Amino acid sequence: MPVNRRNSIIVFLLLFSCSNPNKTEINVTNAFKLKKITIDKFQEPLPWHEFADTLFVVPLETNDDCIISKITRITYWQNRFYVHDQRQQALYIFNENGKFLNKLDKQGRGPGEYLDLRDFKIDSKGNIYILTYNRMQIYSPDLEYLDDIKFKIFDSNGDLFGATKFAFAGKKGFYLWRGSFGIHAKPEKTSYSMVKIDLKGKILEKYFPLEKKLYMGTRFFESENGYNFRYFTGNDTIYWLDENRLSPKYFVDFGDKSLPTGYLPGEFGADVGRTIKQPETRNYAIDVDNVYETDSFLYFSFIYKGHYYFTIYSKNSDKHITQQNKFQYPISPQIVSCTKNNYFVSALPAFICLNRIQDLKKSKKADFRPEYEAIINKLDKLKSSDNPVLFIFSIKEF
Question: What InterPro entries does the database record attribute to this sequence (predicted)?
């Protein structure tokens, strides 16, 4: 039975602006006072040490049993990093120093095996829940197969609800997310992007009626106290989801750089991607994504004029740093992968780390900071074929 790690599960949903009259109808409550974050200026890129603090470097161990193809998602829980590699349909487990501990690699059709590893979560006992085709499979912290929960859900249109992501809904069920996955034409009846089910697969609540096809799908990003995921590429509102309610929490206001209401086509079959790629779209800030939150800071990225930008918002000072990501050495906040307590975690491929080490060695004496030497020494034996390296850092208050 699923048990939350804390008293609530947090999911941040990135939706259309609250002022958009065409926004999707959802079941929401006003549990929070909506916080407006005004992005009124973009500044020249600052070097990482101007806003980042307390850097730890953790190379993930590489051996014959642990060769990561590509990181899909990272979760930190109880002194362990869980690394989902969707290409290999496997889950790798490391301690907080990067030592390889174990891997869940049971793709197949036999007892205790999963057809595919779509998503995973960890309950308060350390049990691992794997979302696969029409079921949830449960493994112990030592990866022993425990049980499964089967569900076969059809929506009012008769389409099979093919869940691709999930979250715990307290002790009595799950939230299942499918977006518009598998739907190629506008439903004749009402279909939904997300449902809440009990442990027997019965639908308890429905969310996000599908009025339009969702471009670019959904990506989850897990923070220390919950989950966040984006709903649609033309988004600017961040919602909170726990076992009882769905509530708006943050609204990102880009001012005259905001995507106009109705700019993206809404009908099924429309080429939204083509609209986004039009030259005039570059004048708008789009694709609020990659959202992570600690006790003091909110982090997210977006695209403007064809470049990646990121914002770090201080909850204490109500100020923000917003700048183009210039891949300042030795870390790149653009690709934050998870949080660890009140730290952000960025995962970088080994070959990129090696390139950055060479750049660090070429730095002028005046630009060479003491912590660079420690990074170079830590990664002295790194090879380009090794597993990624984790950079764990906190943010200075500003």
Answer: 6-blade_b-propeller_TolB-like (IPR011042)
